[in-house]
Write a structure and sequence with these properties.
By secondary structure, this protein is of the alpha+beta class. The chain has one helix at residues 8-27, and strands spanning 33-37, 52-56, 62-69, 72-77, 88-90, 95-97, 104-105, 111-113, 122-126, 130-134. The protein contains one helix and ten strands; from the N terminus they run αββββββββββ. The chain is globular.
């Protein structure tokens, strides 16, 4: 063992630095995922590009999944961020539409036409279609 003395200031600085590192390590842990499976047998409309369906995550969150390109699906929260109306998918324009006040959202969930200004929550969707969202 070393006989080196640490000043009070040095000790406090080291202890605070270690606390920050521990806190950051805990924050970096992955959140458990909810999984929602849209089977083609149950939702045949999802087999073709432009097809879309509604579902609900395990926690009750309503979502809309759309087949946007041959190998790409997009999944967003079902409710418009403007006034909470249910969205639809427009295959021709490749965007999510709000029929109430005509807001448009890209397949990435970002608003492209108002009155909505806030992005939709987006969820990971893969071929098949499996949707994963943090619990």
């Amino acid at each position: 063992m070393s006989d080196a003395r640490v000043s009070r200031r040095g000790f406090v600085a080291t202890a605070m630095g270690a606390g920050v590192m521990v806190g950051r390590a805990g924050a970096a842990e992955k959140q458990p995922l909810q999984t929602l499976v849209f089977s083609f047998a149950e939702f045949p409309e999802l087999k073709k590009v432009g097809g879309w369906a509604e579902g609900e995550l395990e926690d009750g969150t309503p979502v809309l999944v759309a087949h946007v390109e041959p190998d790409k699906f997009s999944c967003v929260g079902l409710k418009c961020t403007h006034q909470n109306c249910d969205l639809e998918f427009d295959a021709e324009q490749k965007c999510f539409l709000c029929p109430c006040h005509h807001s448009h959202f890209g397949v990435d969930g970002k608003p492209t036409k108002g009155p909505a200004t806030k992005a939709l929550p987006c969820y990971s969707a893969a071929g098949g279609v499996v949707v994963q969202a943090p619990e």
